[in-house]
């Protein structure tokens, strides 16, 4: 609705991840580089933890973009599956024709043979699990066993777990300690601070075609930081509603009141400054 008004080519603040506007600030770029490094080195299990809306899905989507076609990706969108269902889902993602009632041992053998064939052809296989905190312990253990499949020098399958802080609580349980001990990298996504929020907002605007001076001033970015708690998804929601408010009132500038109104509409509560560090009060 406001795209033409602000000279935008596409919506800058959709909550659906758009890899074309990936923001590398607040350690997001460094985290992505660490993930790419771990995968390129053939590490077995990697874990990424962050609050709801902190940008885990964006990182998940960025991996195929950065690593290109050298990797065969398996994306598990339904982490609550049973161990048997998960094995079948991985097989389906890899293009294996395995009937639903196939015995678990046979599925494992088919997977092992397929992984060996892919390795011989120079292919890597990486399983991406979103919302991993929802995955049953038995299923986590089943996937962990798949990462044991290896040649003399290389893992045949790698695992990247994306989850909320509850994932750490789940992995702390004694019965899953083997997975925890085989997790070679544990990465954490911090909330965006004020500097990052302001840079993120204006970066998104300019990347999506806006050609004017920075639209998100320090006071406006400060208000967004407080109400969003530094979470990218909330930042997007508030920014989108603020742009709509400015368009509705025929303004090419944003006001702090636009953010307060958007926060009330979204039922977001202001967070105390200490959550984001003293430097955010500038």
Give a description of the structure.
The chain is of the alpha/beta class. The chain has two domains: 28-188, Rossmann fold; 191-281, Helicase, Ruva Protein, domain 3 (Orthogonal Bundle). The chain contains eleven helices and five strands. It has helices at 28-40, 56-67, 83-93, 104-120, 137-146, 166-171, 177-181, 194-207, 218-228, 232-248, 256-266; strands spanning 45-49, 71-76, 124-129, 158-163, 183-188. It has a five-stranded parallel sheet, sandwiched between helices.
Features:
282 residues; alpha/beta; Rossmann fold; Helicase, Ruva Protein, domain 3; 10% strand; disordered C terminus
> What is the total number of structural domains?
2
Beta-strand residue percentage: 5-15%
Structural class: alpha/beta
Instruction: Tell me, rounded to a whole number, the average pLDDT.
Output: 91
Specify the CATH architecture of the largest domain: 3-Layer(aba) Sandwich
What is the CATH level 1 assignment of the largest domain?
A: Alpha Beta
Quick structural gist:
With 282 residues, the chain is α/β, with parallel strands linked by helices. The chain has eleven helices and five strands, in the order αβαβααβαβααβαααα.
Q: Helix and strand layout, with pairings?
A:
Elements: H1 28-40, E1 45-49, H2 56-67, E2 71-76, H3 83-93, H4 104-120, E3 124-129, H5 137-146, E4 158-163, H6 166-171, H7 177-181, E5 183-188, H8 194-207, H9 218-228, H10 232-248, H11 256-266
Parallel strand pairs: 1-4, 1-5, 2-3, 3-4
Helix pairs in contact: 1-2, 3-4, 3-5, 8-9, 9-10, 9-11, 10-11
């Amino acid at each position: 609705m406001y795209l033409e008004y602000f000279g935008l080519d596409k919506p800058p603040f959709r909550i659906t991840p758009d890899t074309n506007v990936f923001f590398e600030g607040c350690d997001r770029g460094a985290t992505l580089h660490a993930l790419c490094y771990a995968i390129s080195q053939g590490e077995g299990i990697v874990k990424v933890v962050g609050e709801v809306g902190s940008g885990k899905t964006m990182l998940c989507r960025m991996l195929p973009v950065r690593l290109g076609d050298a990797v065969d990706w398996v994306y598990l969108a339904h982490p609550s599956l049973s161990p048997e269902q998960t094995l079948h889902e991985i097989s389906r993602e890899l293009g294996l024709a395995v009937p639903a009632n196939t015995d678990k041992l046979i599925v494992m053998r088919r997977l092992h043979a397929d992984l060996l064939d892919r390795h011989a052809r120079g292919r890597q296989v990486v399983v991406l699990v979103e919302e991993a905190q929802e995955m049953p312990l038995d299923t986590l253990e089943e996937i962990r066993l798949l990462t044991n499949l290896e040649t003399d020098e290389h893992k045949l399958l790698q695992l990247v777990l994306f989850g909320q802080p509850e994932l750490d609580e789940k992995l702390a349980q004694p019965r899953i300690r083997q997975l925890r001990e085989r997790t070679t990298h544990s990465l954490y996504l911090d909330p965006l601070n004020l500097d990052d929020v302001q840079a993120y907002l204006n970066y998104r605007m300019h990347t999506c075609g806006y050609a004017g001076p920075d639209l998100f001033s320090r006071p406006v970015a400060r208000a967004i930081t407080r109400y969003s708690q530094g979470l990218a998804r909330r930042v997007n929601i508030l920014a989108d509603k603020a742009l709509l408010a400015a368009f509705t009132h025929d303004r090419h500038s944003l006001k702090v009141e636009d953010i307060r109104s958007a926060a009330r509409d979204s039922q977001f509560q202001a967070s105390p400054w200490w959550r984001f560090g003293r430097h955010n009060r500038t």
